[in-house]
Design a protein that fits this description.
Blueprint: E1 2-5, H1 12-27, E2 32-35, H2 51-58, H3 70-85, H4 88-95, E3 100-103, H5 110-119, E4 127-130, H6 132-136, H7 140-149, H8 168-171, H9 176-189, H10 211-217, H11 223-244, H12 255-270
Parallel strand pairs: 1-2, 3-4
Helix pairs in contact: 2-9, 9-11, 11-12
């Protein structure tokens, strides 16, 4: 079973490639499934269903911006483990006292070798972890070559467009709607940020710690638009959350409803 964890905040290119890959899996009779983290307790908050919506709801940044990796645990690992726990073949394996084998796609390139180093030697009662690309000695170039020989387009690296691991060159290729939401996320979280500058955490010689500052410096969005988002949209969002708190959960508007109105509004301004 091939599982894909969707955080709801992947790049457009990744979502465009997903059906291509699913078609390839179908042609090779490989079962597959998309899993998502499903929040269940919203208290007085508008319901949220993606990493972006989670950050806006709680006025915070993804955990990687604070030097942690709990966003991967919450939005990727946990929903996969939850799905497998209800999968009959896995239940049968555990019933006879064995472990389910998890294949993880870390390759032999330097970047994935560093990621693998954090996982090496990890022991779990339910799973054994194997890394076939590393066993074969495949680096990123070897993976790209194999994808091309299969006749498939080579996808970009899968990553959330809010991620602190994002390079400046990757941010510069994001569409305006992503850049606007990045500005909004940092503006919404700004009053609570004590130890980090923004999504990139802290400044380096190559870039500031705030993605908003980088977007402004590079002219990726008009300064007037950035100022309008910081000065108006974040306040409107707080008002929306305050009103939503008094509405019964079954009738309460979602964070996604507000984001859609936000996108429509800035699109009109940009036009």
């Amino acid at each position: 079973m091939v599982l894909t964890a969707d955080t709801g905040t992947e790049r457009e290119e990744t979502y465009a490639f997903a059906p291509i890959f699913r078609h390839w899996l179908d042609r090779h009779h490989i079962p597959h499934h998309v899993v998502r983290y499903v929040p269940r307790r919203f208290k007085h908050w508008p319901p949220y269903f993606s990493l972006l919506e989670n950050c806006l709801t709680n006025a915070t940044l993804p955990s990687i911006s604070f030097g942690r990796h709990s966003c991967s645990q919450k939005w990727k690992i946990q929903p996969q483990d939850q799905w497998v726990s209800e999968w009959e073949p896995a239940q049968a394996v555990w019933a006879r006292g064995d472990k389910v084998i998890k294949l993880i796609g870390y390759d032999s390139s330097p970047a994935d070798s560093r990621r693998y180093a954090h996982r090496e030697g990890h022991v779990c009662d339910l799973y054994d972890y194997l890394y076939p690309l590393r066993e074969w000695g495949w680096d990123r170039d070897a993976c790209v070559d194999r994808i091309r020989r299969e006749g498939l387009p080579v996808p970009i690296k899968s990553a959330c467009w809010l991620c602190a691991a994002q390079k400046t060159s990757e941010l510069e290729t994001l569409p305006p709607w992503c850049l606007r939401l990045i500005v909004l996320v940092e503006a919404r979280a700004a009053p609570r940020l004590l130890t980090v500058e923004g999504l990139w955490r802290s400044s380096t010689k190559a870039r500031p710690g705030s993605m908003t500052q980088f977007i402004r410096q590079r002219g990726l969005l008009p300064s007037s638009e950035i100022d309008a988002i910081i000065g108006g949209a974040s306040i409107d969002l707080i008002d929306f959350q305050r009103v939503a708190a008094d509405i019964p959960l079954a009738e309460r508007p979602t964070m996604r409803d507000w984001i859609e109105r936000f996108n429509e509004g800035v699109d009109r301004l940009a036009a």
